[in-house]
């Protein structure tokens, strides 16, 4: 079935929006986890998880809004990251971060695999998606490493 450029671009924006939401969920979990940890562990969390997730979140939102503006599309605003509904235990929150990063990575992979990505996406979108994926590449691994550290 043929689609218009507009439909293709809207589909790309929807997928990118999913990634933004997953990243926001992860940031919400990190904020709560930070409050439950000792200073040294909280500093590690900030360096290994929060920093990369925050960079990816900011880049994803910018990539989304810039793409919409370049193509005259109506974008959307994203709510500030909210606290998750979990037990409030640091380990559960950090595990949720790993899941959020993996879900965002999957959404971005699906975006890049979509034929519309090449057909109606542009160079700036492609570069933006790469810039979002880079900082979160190690977040799931680093989150699991933190979980092992907390388990001691």
Features of the shown structure:
6 helices; about 150 residues; Ferritin
* Total tally of structural domains: 1
Q: Please name the fourth-level CATH homologous superfamily.
A: Ferritin, core subunit, four-helix bundle
Q: What portion of the residues fall into strands of 2 or more residues?
A: under 5%
Form type: elongated
Outline the biggest β-sheet: none
CATH class: Mainly Alpha
- What is the CATH T-level topology? Ferritin
Question: How much helical structure, as a percent, in the residues?
Answer: over 70%
**Count of helices?**
6
Please provide the count of β strands.
Answer: 0
The average pLDDT is 92
**N-to-C order of helices and strands:** HHHHHH
Structural class label: mainly alpha
Low-confidence stretches: none
CATH architecture: Up-down Bundle
What distance separates the N and C termini?
Answer: 55 Å
- Spatial extent as radius of gyration: 16 Å
Summary?
Helix content is 78%, strand content 0%. It has six helices and no strands. The mean pLDDT is 92.
Tell me the layout of helices and strands.
Elements: H1 5-36, H2 39-70, H3 90-113, H4 115-119, H5 123-136, H6 139-150
Helix pairs in contact: 1-2, 1-3, 2-5, 2-6, 3-5, 3-6
